[in-house]
Specification:
Number of helices: 13
Helix content: 25-40%
CATH class of the largest domain: Alpha Beta
Largest sheet: 6 strands, mixed
Distance between the termini: 6 Å
Oligomer: single chain
Low-confidence stretches: 456-461
Radius of gyration: 22 Å
Strand content: 15-25%
Strand order of the largest sheet: 6-2-1-7-17-16
């Protein structure tokens, strides 16, 4: 029987910490969730809600048959994920992606945890190493770990902190978009949820407009870095738009501004040279996020430069872009296969601080950390998920699969999975068939793993 006076402590009320607390409670084990906001704010958060989304509102592809992110979504649904349940409830149109109303999503996660009897939420900063009598702790403080806790982590790990910058895209009011120039359409008219294939606002540019825009991005005034930030690298999956532009004039046309799969109904015979896309950011459809337009331009320059985009001449911004420092530990060197710190096993890590990149990947590590901690608390043995699953592939990568000497943040992708078996009579499988093989095996193996889970609920009662 679990000692109800010995809860598992989770530090950080983001996606990973919230998911960890939920999984622990589902196992019948008490948890204390520590969130420093609103007592101590950050440069990126705007509310004191749990699981606040500070960058994009997209959880990326929801295709569980051909995309590793979609497979991870489905795995987490089958694991009873709070983050996926709230995301599904508060989804907004986004073609084949799962995007959410960020305020409704955060409110749903907060309400669920506030109403869970086995979860206590304590507001206030944990400014150093957790007390010795906290015998089971999950550190899920994400990219904005407080300085005091960061210093304590560095002291006990003996590692130099790794860090990169994560950039935030602007959000625009829909009623300030000129629909005499813009139109609604998903690329290739994709409508996986039975919608109308019109989930994105599209803003076309001809060649002269595009080249002028590239020049404005490169020459525009940028935010100053603090001295300690100057040598911090960017994460390749979330580069500022002006950094991409500086890599060559065609970079954006083959990235977030690619003009393929779209037809301008205002001028259907002329193909745009480049297209800016906006994605719905809230359930009411009043706010739209500039897809791929994370930026370090100053606020004044953002307003000036982005209003040169046809259709955004009178744009009003609900939020301008920004930049924040993202820190993570060298997990392959420091963590064991259950996300415990090798040198101090009472501490587990979860979320972006482990070196996974992305909302869902962060929540996935919270889910596993919570389950590992709950099983340990109830005296059960819980095996790691198979490496053939999204959960297992990510876990395996950060706890040993990656080279510790060159470790960098990683999104889930099929490259982390073992290759699928080739059917008899075939030399290889390619394209969508190969992706489907990865996905089918992952979900089948996950179901087998879930069927072998220890009955932590019974052990706790």
């Amino acid at each position: 029987m679990t000692d109800q006076k010995s809860p598992i402590h989770i530090i950080g009320g983001g996606l990973a910490g919230s998911e960890a607390a939920w999984q622990i409670a589902r196992a019948g084990v008490p948890a204390v969730l520590h969130e420093m906001r609103p007592d101590r704010g950050t440069d990126a958060h705007h509310t004191d809600g749990l699981a606040e989304l500070v960058c994009s509102n997209s959880f990326r592809s929801d295709d569980a048959t051909a995309n590793a992110v979609g497979v991870l979504h489905e795995e987490m649904r089958r694991c009873g994920s709070l983050i996926l349940a709230a995301g599904d409830t508060h989804k907004v149109p986004a073609g084949g992606a799962l995007a959410v109303d960020r305020d409704g999503f955060s409110a749903a996660v907060t309400e669920a945890l506030e109403n869970e009897p086995l979860v206590s939420i304590e507001r206030g900063e944990v400014s150093g190493l957790p007390p010795e009598d906290w015998d089971s702790v999950i550190i899920a403080t994400g990219p904005l770990t407080s300085p005091g806790l960061s210093e304590a982590i560095l002291e006990i790990t003996g590692e130099d902190a790794l860090a990169f910058f994560d950039a935030i895209a602007p959000i625009i009011y829909r009623d300030s978009i000129d629909f005499e120039k813009a139109w609604f359409q998903s690329r290739y008219d994709k409508n996986p949820d039975g919608g109308d294939g019109k989930d994105y606002v599209n803003l076309p540019m001809d060649e002269a407009q595009y080249l002028g825009f590239i020049d404005a991005l490169i020459t525009g005034e940028k935010s100053d870095f603090k001295e300690w930030e100057e040598s911090t690298p960017y994460f390749e999956g979330c580069l500022p738009i002006e950094v991409m532009a500086a890599r060559g004039p065609e970079t954006l046309r083959y990235g977030p501004m690619k003009p393929v799969g779209l037809t301008n109904p205002h001028n259907p015979t002329v193909k745009a040279h480049a297209i800016v896309q906006l994605r719905q950011d809230n359930a009411l459809g009043t706010l739209f996020n500039m897809v791929g337009f994370q930026t370090k331009l100053t606020y004044g320059e953002q307003t000036r430069v982005f209003r040169t985009i046809p259709g955004l001449e009178e744009a009003r911004f609900a939020r301008l872009g920004g930049l924040h420092r993202n820190t993570f530990i060298n997990s392959p060197r420091l963590l064991d296969e259950r996300l415990r710190l090798r040198s101090m096993p009472r501490l587990r890590f979860a979320g972006q601080i482990t070196g996974v990149e992305g909302y869902i990947e962060s929540a996935a590590m919270g889910l596993l950390a919570g389950r590992f901690a709950a099983a340990e608390r109830t005296g059960q043995t819980m095996e790691a998920p198979p490496i053939t699953t999204g959960l297992g592939a990510l876990l395996g990568h950060i706890t040993g699969g990656a080279d510790a000497d060159t470790f960098q943040p990683m999104n889930v992708n099929f490259g982390l999975f073992p290759p699928p078996p080739v059917p008899d009579g075939k030399r290889k499988i390619k394209g969508r068939d190969r992706k489907l093989a990865y996905a089918t095996r992952a979900l089948n193996d996950l179901d087998g793993w879930l069927g072998e889970m220890p009955d932590t609920q019974d052990a706790a009662e």
